[in-house]
Amino acid sequence: MSKKEMKRILVTGAVGQIGSELTIALREKYNNDDVLATGRKTKPSETLLNSGPFEFIDIVNKKSIEKVVKDYDVDTIYNMAAILSAVGEKNPELCWNVNINGLYNIFDIALEYDMTRVFVPSSIAVFGPESPKENTPQETILKPKTMYGVSKVTGELLGDYYFKRFNLDVRGLRYPGIISSETLPGGGTTDYAVEIFYEAIKNKKYSCFVKESTILPMMYMPDCLKASIDLMNVDISKLKHHCDFNLTAMSFSVGELVSEIKKYISEFDCEYKPDFRQDIADSWPRSIDDTAARKEWGWGPDYDLSAVTKDMIKKLRIRFEEGNL
User: Fold this and answer.
1) Residue 113: active-site member
2) What is the pLDDT of residues 180-204, one digit of tens each?
């Protein structure tokens, strides 16, 4: 198996919630010009445009990927382009097309151009009602009830196939819900854990689309970025798993989150109006066992609920006062 170092990195979905911040983190770690950000149609931020190269591509169109791979001499891909759970249920065909057909294109190009490695994020959406809800193990039943979850299970299996069949170094994490102070989420079931902070700062109230008692695994963006970069840099000889690492930092109910926010914004009020996303949330784990990630590559989070809330409130208040929220 190749142990080549990453040199030129392509990030797909670089305008999305995680992709936008991951691109900046990679540019801070490596040379700015060596990290190519790409998106399909959404205009990138000035920060993204001013810090390094950007190109529009469509991962469903193999030729558009191949062109930038050639033009920028790419040897590593972070494939962050995806249709998330809530949007995927409204348009399952689009979800499959982007998440699977697009991924297949990425793998084929990576193999054809002898890529160093490929990062493919998965999600807790791979689990379903038959999976254990508490401390969900690394190896368990994967029978998701959403097209997003189905696509992520398929992506894990496809990545493992390319690793074993073609020696393509594919790695991936099962992301929990991700909380960010920089970018709003894009159509996922855990969006409430981000939206609630923005609405608390701006309007002192929030209408939540899941119940107060809903508990899901979560993670702050700095920990998400750390995990995504650290996994790609560990020596492959240390890894027993590849495309499906369980990953978590904390689990909390919406009610617990509201209580933490009220420590800083006492007048904050949250009402609960569950919609179709409640069924999705109920099919997912309440807590995750990420022992494999901790043992194989030293994973460990820096933020718990208290630290996340304090940092989110601080950063969003500054942005609100500056008129940027």
Assistant:
1) no
2) 998 877 778 899 999 999 999 999 9
Nearest to 129 by CA among 141, 111, 115: 141
- Identify whether 154 is part of a domain: yes
Q: Is 317 helix (H, G, I), strand (E, B) or coil?
A: helix
Tell me the per-residue pLDDT of 226-262, one tens digit each, with 9 for 90 and over: 999 999 999 999 999 999 999 999 999 999 999 999 9
Q: How far is CA 207 from CA 169, 220, 279, 304, in A?
A: 43, 22, 17, 24
Tell whether 85 and 188 lie within a shared domain: no
Same domain, 206 and 141: no
pTM of the model: 0.93
Query: Is 291 domain-assigned?
Result: no
Total tally of structural domains belonging to the chain: 2
C-beta separation of 277 from 87 below 8 A: no
Q: What is the spatial distance between Cα 194 and Cα 224, in angstroms, rounded to a whole number? A: 14
Which of 72, 148, 162, 175 does the annotation list as catalytic?
A: 148
- Residues of the domain holding 278: 178-218+250-284+302-321
In a domain, 58, yes or no: yes
